[in-house]
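Worked example 2:
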Amino acid sequence: MDNLLKIEDIVFNDDNYRNVKNNSIDFILTDPPFNIARETNFHTYKDNTIHSYKFDSDTKEEWDTFSHEDFIKELYKWSSEFNRVLKKGGNFAIFCADSYISYFIDALKENGLSPRRVISWTKPNAVPINRAYMPTSAVEYIIVGVKGNKATFNSDIKIINQDIDDKIIEAVVVAEKASSIVNALVRKSLLENNFENDTHIDSVLSLIKDILVNDNKIILDRVENMYKDRDNEKYLQACIPNHISLPSKSGNRIHPTEKPVYLLQYLLSLYSKVGDLVLDPFAGSGSTGEASLMLNRTPILIERENKFYEKAVKRLEKII
C-alpha cells in the first residue's frame, strides 16, 4: 500500500459524491439502506448475540426508514450517481433487501448500467427469530453488474505463484464444492435409514462420522476434477457459483449491518484488480475500506453519520 495514502483522502463525512470524479471508479462495493427498519421486539430476544444495537424504530435512527415511494426515488438517485462515477467496464456489487431487488435492478438499468447476477449470501449463524412461524431469515442478496459490457471477472485461478486474490477465490469455490457433496451424502443417508427412537441422536452422529471417514474418496475425487491441465500446468476451472455460505460477523459490531471483511474480500477478488479505485458511498463501519486496503486496492469511503464516520476513521488509521 502506498505510504503516502492519507486518511483524509479516502474517508469523507458527507452525504453526497462531491469528492468523486466522473468515470473514475473501477468498482462500487456498498451496502446501502434496505428500508426494512420497523417496530419489532428484536432487542428483547434473549439469545441475541449478533449485536446490542436495537435495529428497529426504537433506535430513533432515520437512515433506514423511508416510505416505499421515497425509497424508490432514492434507488434511482443512487443508480444515477453510480453510472456517473463508474468507469466504462467498471463493476458494482450492491447489497439489497429481497423485497427491493426488482426495483433496484430497474433503477440501475434505467440509469445505463447492466445488472448481471444476484448473488445470495447464506448465513449459517443467522438469529432464529420467529423460527416457529416461518423460515429463518438467513440470506442476503447482492446485485452485481457492470457499466458497459466488458467487465473484470477473475475466474481463472492460478495454483502456481498464487496471489491473495487467487487464494481467496480458490478457498471459497473449493469449500463450496466439498460442502455441497457432504450435504448431498448426509441428506441421502438420513432419508434411507431408519433409527431406533432411543438411539436416534447417536445414530445420526455416527452416520455423519461414517460419511466423513468412509466416503472421503467421493469428496476428494469430485474436488480433484475441478483442477484441469492447460499448457502443461494445472489450473482451477472455477465455475463461480452465485452463492456463498459464510457466517455473519459475530460479537461486537461497529455498525448494526456490518458485513464480514472476508465476504467483501471475496467480492473484491472476483470483480476488481490490484490498484483499482473502490467506492463505498454507504461506508458505515469502514469494512469495505479495510478489505480494500488489505488487498491493495484504494478505497473512497463516504459516510454521513458522524458517529460511524469517526469509528471508521479510527479503524482505517490502524491499517494505513
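The first strand starts at residue 11 and ends at 12. Residues 38-60 have pLDDT under 50 and may be disordered.
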